[in-house]
Design a protein that fits this description.
single chain; A middle domain of Talin 1; two-stranded antiparallel sheet
């Protein structure tokens, strides 16, 4: 037990420092190459912080624990919006770009509905369904390439870095997040299993929260540093990456059973995404009050799981 506590503390420390370094490196890259921070958030930061979800889900399905794999993705996406954006908004108002409101958040809602339909209609994410998800991921990457060419921004409040230092910051930050998340998740899983918590609930709560820790600490760091686009892009990009890439690749390797209970969790994810869009569509910002509502919804969701 003492070892688990020590590893938990070490994991949190690595997460905290890794997020800080990653945000600095990512924002420096945005400035150096004159790329919008939202694009950096949707790609490098999102993929980096989603690495734990990818590792856990793919290995879980391959090892026959599909309940953990699917639950991890659905639970992470719910936590990303309700918990992480909720906490980040309490720190500072998060301003949202027009493109994110018009295209990216609705796209998250669309693929969430698509995943729910696949699960409801077929009871599995088959290889054909997984191929569709992968194709959509490629199209999303093409969309990002287009907006990176059309939207040029200056980030004058960001520290200048050499190319080597910038790359090292990003790589070290991602590595620290992945290792820190693994340490934290393993400690939490040991405790949860000792308490006889079901596989689905472990996937939707303990593992989902643990693998979302990189997004959480990265968003908090970005919010503190006033980089709203990295915070928002991180969450939106992570949710897209989780569904299209992680479940797409996993489903190509091996069809993923989709339990009926996951339909409820899918619905929660859709509601969370739509609520986020409603909150930002008019004034283009996520305020402290809205963040508090998101947090309260997450509490209700967790309570509904453990009842």
């Amino acid at each position: 037990m003492l070892v688990s506590i020590i590893l938990l503390i070490l994991g949190f420390a690595m997460l905290s420092k890794g997020a800080d370094v990653l945000v600095d490196g990512a924002s420096a890259m945005a400035r150096k190459f004159n790329i919008p921070e939202i694009v950096i958030g949707l790609t490098i930061v999102a993929c980096g912080t989603s690495a734990p979800e990818a590792a856990v889900s793919i290995s879980s399905v391959i090892n026959g624990a599909s309940g953990v794999g699917v639950g991890n993705i659905l639970g992470s996406n719910i936590a990303n919006i309700l918990l992480i954006l909720g906490v980040s908004a309490l720190i500072t108002n998060l301003y949202v770009q027009k493109n994110t409101i018009l295209y990216e958040i609705p796209f998250v809602a669309f693929i969430s509905v698509l995943l729910m339909f696949m699960g409801w209609q077929y009871g599995t994410v088959s290889r054909v369904s997984a191929l569709v998800l992968c194709v959509l991921f490629v199209l999303f990457l093409f969309y990002l390439f287009v907006i990176s060419k059309n939207q040029k921004t200056e980030n004058s409040n960001v520290e200048k870095m050499s190319s080597i230092k910038m790359i090292l910051f990003i790589l070290i930050g991602i590595a620290a997040l992945v290792v820190g998340a693994k340490l934290t998740v393993n400690s939490a899983i040991n405790i949860a299993r000792a308490l006889n918590i079901s596989e689905r609930v472990i996937g939707l709560t303990v593992i989902a929260f643990g693998t979302s820790l990189p997004e959480l600490v990265t968003c908090i760091a970005a919010a503190i540093k006033k980089h709203s686009d990295i915070a928002i892009g991180n969450i939106v990009g992570s949710n897209i990456f989780n569904i299209l890439f992680v479940l797409g690749v996993t489903g190509l390797i091996q069809p993923i059973p989709f339990e009926n209970a996951f339909l409820i969790d899918s619905a929660w994810g859709i509601v969370a995404t739509v609520l986020l869009w409603i909150f930002v569509v008019n004034d283009k910002k996520l305020t402290k009050g809205k963040g508090l509502i998101l947090l309260m919804m997450y509490v209700v969701y967790v309570i509904s799981l453990i009842r």
